[in-house]
Design brief:
The chain is mainly α. It folds into two domains: 78 residues, Rna Polymerase Sigma Factor, Chain: A (Orthogonal Bundle), CATH 1.10.1740; 67 residues, Winged helix-like DNA-binding domain superfamily/Winged helix DNA-binding domain (Arc Repressor Mutant, subunit A, Orthogonal Bundle). Helices cover 67% and strands 0% of the residues. The longest helix has 25 residues. Pfam families: Sigma70_r4_2. It comes from Lachnoanaerobaculum umeaense. Keywords: Sigma factor, Transcription, Transcription regulation. Belongs to the sigma-70 factor family. ECF subfamily.
């Protein structure tokens, strides 16, 4: 079925609003703020609606969950900052590649490796593998372009490290 953009947004809302509200509430513990987060998702989705071809599919569901979790985390962190809690960012070296990524043939092993990645890294790699550019990822995650590229590099580096450990039969670092 072909949809115009307004119909797509409406259908996405019908399909995923309850799911997104659950994810937002899990993080925010406040129904009103969770509803605001769901609304914000659709403001972001409007910017990328042309990239969404299938509405009721795992790829779109994953996209909606990634966006709501990111927005909810941002709201949560903003509320904590407003409460004068100090946050610090750990600097990690950049530059890596995914050359060894495709050497792993067994899906179950790959799933185990991906489960060891921090959620933010797994999400950004999922968006990249779904064909989103760093610019689109920045829009989806509401971060600037340079931060999107940096996170992507960090995610690739972390993934490469886990793959190297896997291939050498070594132990995974506990996170």
């Amino acid at each position: 079925m072909f949809y115009n953009n307004n119909e797509k947004i409406e259908q996405l809302f019908n399909l995923y609003s309850d799911l997104m509200l659950q994810h937002a509430y899990y993080i925010l513990k406040d129904i009103s703020t969770s509803e605001d987060a769901v609304s914000e998702v659709f403001l972001r989705v409007i910017k990328i609606i042309e990239k969404i071809n299938e509405l009721d599919c795992p790829k779109t569901r994953k996209l909606m969950v990634i966006i709501i979790e990111n927005i909810s985390k941002n709201i949560y962190n903003r509320r904590k900052r407003e409460a004068l809690v100090d946050f610090t960012e750990i600097d990690v070296e950049n530059e890596s590649s995914l050359d060894d990524f495709y050497d792993i043939e067994i899906k179950q092993d790959m799933d185990n490796i991906l489960k060891r990645l921090p959620v933010d890294y797994a999400n950004i790699l999922a968006l990249k593998s779904d064909g989103y550019s760093p610019k689109e990822i920045a829009e989806i995650l509401d971060i600037n372009y340079d931060n999107a590229r940096k996170r992507l590099l960090r995610a690739k580096k972390s993934l490469k490290k886990l793959i190297t450990e896997y291939e050498s039969g070594g132990r995974y670092d506990e996170r």
